[in-house]
Amino acid sequence: MEIKRTTHRILVVDDEPEIHAVLGKLLENEGYEVVSTYNAKQALDSIAEKRPDLILLDIMMPKVSGIELCKLIKSDPAMQDILVLIVSARDDQSDRIDGLAHGADDYVSKPFHLRSLARKIEHMLDKKKKTDFEKEIGR
Question: What are φ and ψ of residue 5, in 5° steps?
Fold first, then answer.
């Protein structure tokens, strides 16, 4: 009997096509379904349509920053349980604190090690699955 692994959907929100190519290949090789968007509006449309399990979010984007988008996601009861992992070239301590203060679940700086990022994503999704299960059974 084969046990089917649940496929998690990951939304990549970044204005750099190269990041989409690298992350898309990595995540698909890890067995995830990947959805790519290039700005906040596309991201919100995609969240409404495809409901991701986790969002990889860049901070520096045109018009609406990743921090603003994260704040919007985490303040909306319909979206607040979606995991947000900020992946940014900004590596100052103040940027990390700002991202986490506005609801991000974790923060990774670019450039990143692909294997480490894949393990972090796996860990975040496993932890959420366990937490959701515990809530479901009333622990």
Answer: -75, 135
Residues 65, 98: Cα–Cα separation, whole Å: 12
pLDDT tens per residue, range 104-125: 999 998 888 899 999 999 999 9
* Architecture label for domain 9-137: 3-Layer(aba) Sandwich (3.40)
Spatial contact of 54 and 8, defined as CB atoms under 8 Å apart: yes
Question: What is the domain partition of the chain in residue ranges?
Answer: 9-137
User: Is 94's pLDDT higher than 70?
Assistant: yes
Instruction: Output the pTM of the full model.
Output: 0.89
**Considering the chain, what is the average pLDDT of its residues?**
89
CA distances from 68 to 60, 82, 91, 103, 112 (A): 10, 15, 18, 10, 23
